């Protein structure tokens, strides 16, 4: 029953969501892109380097989301955005970076608009998560930190969620559980999050609508094939639909940095 997040996701030629507000659907000029390319948070001293390895779901699409990439990849990218904004951990891109490095080694021509792989610092830990439900009981996020060299499980923990948990709430609970576990390991770095509900230690339901999540996934599908305008429209539409959807803003800034010459490794 489990759906595994594979490391070489396929994309599709995606465009702007048809329901995007007209002001967003207008093509962005270079000045607009530079404005959107907010710099990535600088990791504080001692920040642990983390990559998302895999996410497994009990159902292929428990929320009925509209995505060609697979719900597990969509959830993993919500988690990635939640980590990317934080200076107390250093998120290390793995899925797309690995695919780009493999393509470069094989001598394949980089697709139009695709950013270079760059040089990755490599993760200290891989984060792997299974979201499992058993009958009528609550569901659980079974999270593990793996050694990237050996695959050995270094730490594991469980976070309870309701059976009908929303996808953004699940993603934020994954991030919050990781931060809490790093604190128990003595590896937490000092930083006060200005968004109190961004990474709760226990699951908290969000008000992010399915329509907003679908717009985020439209943006992600476009970014996967380096369709920067489609990515921008998708992420901005998600933000407009739910102003508290900071993951969409983080993904948009990342897309803008990549479009303007950034590498996959630097995010």
Textual characterization of the structure:
With 267 residues, this protein is α/β, with parallel strands linked by helices. It has a domain at 25-204: Rossmann fold (3-Layer(aba) Sandwich), CATH 3.40.50. The protein has 8 helices and 6 strands. Strands 1, 2, 3, 4, 5 and 6 form a 6-stranded mixed β-sheet that branches. α3 (71-84) crosses α8 (246-259), α6 (210-224) runs antiparallel to α7 (228-241) and α7 packs antiparallel against α8 (246-259). The longest helix has 18 residues, at 167-184. The radius of gyration is 18 Å and the shape is globular.
List the helices and strands in order.
EHHEHEHEEEHHHH
Looking at the overall shape, the CATH architecture of one domain is 3-Layer(aba) Sandwich
Taking all Cα atoms into account, the compactness measure Rg is: 18 Å
**How would you describe the shape?**
globular
**Strand-pairing-aware structural class:** alpha/beta
Main β-sheet description: 6 strands, mixed
Number of strands: 6
CATH class of one domain: Alpha Beta
Helix run count: 8
Q: How much of the sequence is in beta strands? A: 5-15%
Unreliable spans: 1-18
Helix content: 25-40%
Mean pLDDT: 90
N/C terminus separation: 33 Å
**CATH topology term of one domain:** Rossmann fold
């Amino acid at each position: 029953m489990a759906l595994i997040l594979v490391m070489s996701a396929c994309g599709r030629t995606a465009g702007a969501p048809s329901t995007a507000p007209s002001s967003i659907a207008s093509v962005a000029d270079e000045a607009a892109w530079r404005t959107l390319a907010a710099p990535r948070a600088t990791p504080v001293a001692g920040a642990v380097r983390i990559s998302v390895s895999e996410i497994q779901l009990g159902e292929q699409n428990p929320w009925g989301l509209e995505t060609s990439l697979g719900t597990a990849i969509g959830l993993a990218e919500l988690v990635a955005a939640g980590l990317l904004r934080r200076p107390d951990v250093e998120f290390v891109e793995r899925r797309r970076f690995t695919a780009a490095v493999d393509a470069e080694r094989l001598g394949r021509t980089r697709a139009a608009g695709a950013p270079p792989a760059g040089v990755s610092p490599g993760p200290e830990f891989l984060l792997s998560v299974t979201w499992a439900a058993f009958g009528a009981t609550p569901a659980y996020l079974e999270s593990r930190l793996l050694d990237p060299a050996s695959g050995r499980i270094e730490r594991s923990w469980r976070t309870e969620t309701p059976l009908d948990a929303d996808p953004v709430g699940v993603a934020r609970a994954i991030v919050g559980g990781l931060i809490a576990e790093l604190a128990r390991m003595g590896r937490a770095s000092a930083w006060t999050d200005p968004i109190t509900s961004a990474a709760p230690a226990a699951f908290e339901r969000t008000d992010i609508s399915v329509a907003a999540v679908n717009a985020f996934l439209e943006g992600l599908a476009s970014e996967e094939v380096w369709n920067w305008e489609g990515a921008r429209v998708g992420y901005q539409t998600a933000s407009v639909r739910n102003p508290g959807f900071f993951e969409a803003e983080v993904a948009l800034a990342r897309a803008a940095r990549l479009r303007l010459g950034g590498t996959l490794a630097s995010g």
